[in-house]
Amino acid sequence: MPDTTADKIKTLAQPIIERNNAFLVDVVVRGERSSKVLEVYVDSDSGISLDQCSNISRELSARLDEADLVQGRYRLDVSSPGLDKPLKMLRQYSRNVGRNCKIFINEAGKRIPLEGVLEHVDEKSVTIREKGKTRDIEFSTIIETYIIPKLK
Q1: For the purposes of burial, counting CB atoms within 10 Å of the CB of 132, is it exposed (0-12), middle (13-18) or buried (19 or more)?
Q2: How much is the pTM?
Q3: Fewer CB within 10 Å, N- or C-terminus of the chain?
Q4: Which strands, in side-by-side order, build the sheet including 73-79?
Q5: Cα 149–chain centre separation
């Protein structure tokens, strides 16, 4: 049974997000009791649109008010995770094949950074090319991954 506000919002939001052909990446609840900010990050396999975010926001806002999950005033922000947020789900990696990334892995209890081009993704691992060599990385060892935007 969900016990945190974020978990309850995830449960409430999931069907709404799926109806809008998207998937839930994360929910962050921050702020004071009297003025909370609810950040709901969504994406889709082909990229999330502003219309999808708006539709999800309207529907989720109404459901949050009905369920009375958040005491006091709150602001709901529904958006894509953006490049400043780490990839959270294996599903997000496929859309980023061919892009530069920085992956932090757990290797023998140490946080090791790797940087290269994301070349391949499957159910259990990702492959990056770093300095001309390919390296397979088990998804279970990944701590976090950031996409590095190309500079124009």
Answers
A1: exposed
A2: 0.79
A3: C
A4: 23-32, 35-43, 73-79
A5: 17
DSSP reduced 3-state for 80: coil
Q: Distance between CA atoms of 78 and 68, rounded to whole angstroms?
A: 18
Q: Which pLDDT band holds residue 25 (cuts at 50, 70, 90)?
A: very high
The reported pLDDT for the residue numbered 107 is 94
| pLDDT tens sequence across 33-66 | 778 999 999 999 888 899 999 999 999 999 999 9
Measure the CA–CA gap between 149 and 152, rounded to whole angstroms: 9
Percent helix, strand and coil across the chain, each to the nearest 5: 25, 45, 30
